[in-house]
Fold this sequence. Notes:
Strand content: 25-35%
Largest sheet: 7 strands, mixed
Structural class: alpha+beta
Order of helices and strands: EEEHEHHHEEEHHHHHEEHEE
Amino acid sequence: MSRPRPWIEAFAPATVSNLGPGFDCLGLALRGPGDRVRARRGEQPGVVIAKVEGDGGKLPRSADKNTAGVAVAELLRRYAPDAGVELEVYKGLPLGSGLGSSGASACAALVAADAALGLGLQPAQLVDLAREGERVACGAAHPDNVAPAILGGVVLIPQLDPLRLIALPSPADLWLAVYTPGCSVSTAEARAVLPAQVPLAATVQQASRLGLLVHALHCGDLSLLGEAIVDELVEPCRARLIPGYLDAKAACCEAGALACSISGSGPTTFALAGSRGRAEAMLAILEECFTLAGVPGNGLVDQVGPGARVVSTLLH
Length: 316
């Protein structure tokens, strides 16, 4: 008799990365939005993407070009070379948004495939695999989205080779207003505008703010956290790619936001607050500013949440 091939579905959350001074080494998982992927054992070795929904037909269906397929193919290469996996991808995140959309697909696919094959891989192994999907998406295997997408919470990545992940505490009273304007910024475009060299003094200042940020999280000090989330290296270069961003940031800060910055490569913008009510006020400001700039979009109020997980099993 042939082995059963039930579908197993996993969810991976949206992520906010960089968090000001933490370029490519810091990110957090949101509680609400994300991508879902179903996986089951394939009848033949290799990866087959049977379905992609929610992307408006923009994502490749080929397993060697889709981030979910690439990540699972790497899983098979390293840990199950004779196995096969079929995938169904359900996008819940907008493309090119700065919310870790490509990483979420890869992470959900890996968690579902790992469960379908019964491999029992560790989170750090899944993060390392998910990086290969990011390499295809933007040319760099950066882990600042996929690490929090797998582990949940706030994650610091102090070392890439070998990969090292550190889970940081998150204050219970930290709220985020997250708004995605109606424009798109590709990760490749956002990386292309970055300077090849930066002044030593600016580098020292950036490093000190990252240290302050980590300290603030451990202390649960929201005021210090807001003081730390300042980026004078990357944000000025990317701000011009996002219509209305500078006005939106100024308005949020004037209204009492703890901090306001770009999520990942943008255009999604986040503002931090110490209560849900204040975060909702920040979201209204972001909505107004980006609408006035001609790029109305969508937003939400959320908190730091858990990482990727199996949400259903034995879907026949």
